[in-house]
Amino acid sequence: MKTEILKLLRESGDYISGQELCGKFHVSRTAVWKVINQLKEEGYGIEAVQNKGYRLNVNPDVLSFSELKSRMRTKWAGRNIVYYEETGSTNIDAKLLGEQGAEHGTVVVADKQNAGRGRRGRSWQSPAGKDIYFTILLRPEFEPDKAAGLTLIMALSVTQAVRNCCGLEAGIKWPNDLVLNGKKICGILTEMNVETDYIQHVVIGTGINVNLERMPEEIEQTATSLLLEGGKETARARLLQEVLERFEENYESYEKDMSLVSMLEEYNKYLVNKDKQVRVLDPKGEFEGIARGINDLGELLVETENGKIVKVYAGEVSVRGIYGYV
What we know:
Structural class: alpha+beta
Number of strands: 14
Mean pLDDT: 89
Low-confidence stretches: none
Strand content: 15-25%
C-alpha cells in the first residue's frame, strides 16, 4: 500500500483526501496515517491540510523499493524489483535469481555494494547513498552470438538517460564505459549463462557515479560523477527509471532487427572513440588506428595506417585524451 500511496501522491501533484485513500485501499484512516508517517520518516515532504488531505511537495533522493516500484511504467524492465540496502554484488545476486527461475526483466538494485566488480576482475567503488548500482536479468530468445550487443544497448540507454535527466553531454567509450569531460562516470559488466546454442540468462550490471562529492584519490584523475560535472544532485530513482525505460525500448528494437541498425546513428553520435586515434589491446598484438564508429553488429571499426578497416569484436580500447592515454 505504501508504494501505491506514494505513486498517487507523486502523480497527482495536488491534495488527495484521506477519505479517498481509505476508500481506494479499503483501510482505516489510522492505517493511511501510519503510511504517511512512514514516508515522512524516509524523508518525503508531505503536507497535511484539514479538509484537503495530503500533498507531496518534497521528493528527496531516496533509493528504496517503494520509491522505485512507484516509478515503474515499463512493460517488463524493472516490473520485478529486488532491492537491498547493502549487498556484495548485484550481478552475483541476479545470477542466483536467474538460476532460481526469476523472470525476464528482473532488476536487482542496491544502495551499497561491498564486492562490486568491473571488467577483468577490477573492483568498483560502491559507497552508500550516493550512486546507482543495479543489474538487469534477461532471458533472450536469440542466439548466443547476438548477446554481445546487449552491453552496447545498455551503454546507449544510460547515455540517453543522463542526457535527458541531467542535461549533461555524456559519451560512450566503446564498448562499456560512459564518460564526461574525458573521465569515467559509468561502467557496465555483462555476464552470460549459456548452453551450446541456448542462452539461459544474461545479467547486465551497471554502476553510475551520481552524487559523489569527491572521487577516491586513486581514481580522481580518471573518474568523476554527475554531481561533480553538473554541479547539482540527481534523484537516483528518477535516473534509474529513465535508464530502464530507454533500455526496454532499445532492447525491443534490437530483438526486432537482430542488429543495432536502428540505434547505429545515435550510438555513433555519442561515441567518443569515433574519428579519434585509438590503441587496441588485442591478444594477437596491440595496434593503433582511427576509430570510424561501430557496425550493426556492435564491432568497432578501426582504420589502420595502411587504410585497412579492422573489425574489433572485443578487448580494451584506449582513446587519446581519455583516462590518461595521450
